[in-house]
Every structure is written in structure tokens, then in C-alpha cells.
UniProtKB/TrEMBL annotation:
GO biological processes: proteolysis
Name of this protein: Cysteine peptidase
Residue ranges of the TM segments: none
Signal peptide stretch: 1-25
InterPro entries with a match to the protein in the record: Papain-like_cys_pep_sf, Pept_cys_AS, Pept_his_AS, Peptidase_C1A, Peptidase_C1A_C, Peptidase_C1A_papain-like, Prot_inhib_I29
Span of domain Cathepsin propeptide inhibitor: 37-93
Length: 311
């Protein structure tokens, strides 16, 4: 009986000794998480309503870090981690920043007559940023206006390539005045181009005369004041669903307004995204270049989430 008791005691001791390192590892992980969250709050100026909300956002932050590890495994050529969106649930992120899925699905159902793109060998690399044809990255804020930034970015570049100075143009014009789209609740680039041509005489105002004010998610009424015309649009075309033809068009004609699957953007830091769904388009961006000589080859897009989240 004594021997049996001793074995039980040793077994209990082994369990205790094994659980102490595990507990210490858990404490270290909690400390690391807390320090990362504190650094995140400081960097992005995050202030929460009360302790309850802060605890909730910490849990969301932890979940997003875990999801970032999964994204990294699915995208071996990219880096994922803490971003300004790391305290948002995936649903909050979708509603605020990538809410265009319904619009892009609607666009897919429309009868399209893509422009003919001549066959030809496109150069291995193109980057319109290096040619001075792309304005600096802007920030749409907490407003689902990616469609407006994509459309205006395209017009800025096309206007410059037509021989005019590179001019920052007004997204607010589209967000507030375009009666076909829905401001911060989403829209389509094609709709925006058509509205400008059909309803605004092709006039696009300068950003300085009609600045962006919808970053908080509000869509103010259309301004009837006089604004400076910065560019004029006479028409637009749709391109074929063919990456080779898109590259050929881009190389010759400049940046293109496109839609992408941005579900992985919540935790994206840098690198080349290789895991995305072409049938889950939900975010409007500007295609400004590509590199077909790289391994892997990649497209270059201009996003509208500020300089800290450009691609």
C-alpha cells in the first residue's frame, strides 16, 4: 500500500510540474498579447468607450492575430499581422470597407460590350507611379466609397495622360451627388462614369474645391456651390475578362478601375497575395501596374485606405 501511495504521489507531482510551465507559457502569451494591443492602441490612437468595450476589442484583436497566421499560410509570399483594422470583427470590416459585393455581382449580370483590345506582347513590367501618372494614396475612411476613389483615380490618371497636369480630383462629388450610386453605402465605377457623362456634363471638380468629408461614414447633400472643374470626361469603356488583354491595355492606356476580393486585406501588411477568389469581388481599387518577370508575377494596385495600407 505504501508503494502504491508513493507512485500516486509521484504522479501527482509530475502533473503539477508539467502544468507549471504550461501556466507560465500562458501568462507570457497573455503578456505578449497585452503589449501588442497596447502598442496597437498607441499607434492608431484607439480609445474605447469603457473597460467592457476594451476587453471585447482585445478578444477581437486576439482572434484577428490568429486569423492572420492562417492567412500567412495560405499566402506564402505575403506578410500578415497587426493593422489599423485589427480590433474590428470581420463583419465590421466588411460593412465599413468592402461592402461592394452586391454591386459587383449586379455588374456581372449586365450586358457588357467590352472594347476590342489588339493582340500583342505587353512589356514584362509596367508601373505608372514611376511615370508620374498616379496621385498619392488617399483615405476613404469609414465610408463604403471605394467605388468613387477607384473611378476618380482612373480619371486623374487618364486626364494626365491626355497631356494635362496631374490633378487631384473630387471623390466627394460622386459620393454626394451621383444619384445612381449610394454614397457611403456603395456603388459602381461604371455607374459613376455614366453619371458624370450623362448628368454632370462630364465635369469633374478638383479636390481642393470640393474636398472629401465623408471619412466618418456620413454622406452630406450634394453641394450646389460653384466648384473648379479639374477634368472633363467624354466616355468610358469596359475591358474583356482576360488578364493578358488587361495587361496590354494597361501598358498602353494607363491605370484601370477594377474590383478585387479584399477579404484578406484586414491583416495584410506587405507582399504578394496569391490566395483570392475572382468570383467574390467586393472592393474597388485602381490597377496601376504589374510585374510579369517576378516569381510570383503580380499586379500593383492603388488602394484608398491611407498611406499605411497601400499595395
Amino acid at each position: 500500500m505504501k508503494v502504491t501511495h508513493t507512485l500516486v504521489s509521484l504522479a501527482a507531482l509530475a502533473i503539477i510540474l508539467c502544468t507549471i510551465p504550461a501556466a507560465m507559457a500562458s501568462m507570457r502569451a497573455d503578456d505578449t498579447l497585452a503589449s501588442k494591443f497596447a502598442a496597437f492602441k498607441q499607434k492608431y490612437g484607439k480609445v474605447y468607450r469603457d473597460a467592457g468595450e476594451e476587453a471585447y476589442r482585445l478578444r477581437v484583436f486576439k482572434e484577428n492575430l490568429a486569423h492572420a497566421e492562417l492567412e500567412a499560410k495560405a499566402n506564402p509570399h505575403a506578410m500578415f499581422g497587426v493593422t489599423r483594422f485589427s480590433d474590428l470583427t470581420r463583419e465590421e470590416f466588411r460593412q465599413r470597407y468592402i461592402n461592394g459585393e452586391a454591386y459587383f455581382k449586379m455588374a456581372e449580370r449586365r450586358l457588357r460590350r467590352p472594347v476590342e483590345v489588339p493582340a500583342g506582347n505587353a512589356p514584362a513590367q509596367v508601373d505608372w507611379r514611376t511615370k508620374g501618372a498616379v496621385t498619392p494614396v488617399k483615405d476613404q475612411g469609414s465610408c463604403g466609397s471605394c467605388w468613387a476613389f477607384s473611378a476618380i483615380g482612373n480619371i486623374e490618371s487618364q486626364w494626365h495622360m491626355a497631356g494635362n497636369p496631374l490633378t487631384r480630383l473630387s471623390e466627394q462629388l460622386l459620393v454626394s451627388c451621383d444619384t445612381v450610386d449610394e454614397g457611403c453605402n456603395g456603388g459602381l465605377m461604371d455607374n459613376a462614369f455614366k453619371w458624370l457623362v450623362d448628368s454632370n456634363k462630364g465635369k469633374v471638380y478638383t479636390e481642393s474645391s470640393y474636398p472629401y468629408v465623408s471619412g466618418s461614414g456620413q454622406t452630406p447633400a450634394c453641394s450646389t456651390s460653384e466648384h473648379e472643374v479639374g477634368a472633363t470626361v467624354t466616355g468610358f469603356v469596359d475591358l474583356p475578362k482576360d488578364e493578358d488583354k488587361m495587361a496590354a491595355w494597361l501598358a498602353t492606356n494607363g491605370p484601370i478601375a477594377i474590383a478585387v476580393d479584399a477579404n484578406s486585406f484586414l491583416s495584410y501588411v506587405s507582399g504578394v497575395l496569391t490566395n483570392c477568389e475572382s468570383d467574390q469581388l467586393n472592393h474597388g481599387v485602381l490597377l496601376v501596374g504589374y510585374d510579369d518577370s517576378s516569381n510570383p508575377p503580380y499586379w500593383i494596385i492603388k488602394n484608398s485606405w491611407g498611406e499605411c495600407v497601400s499595395f
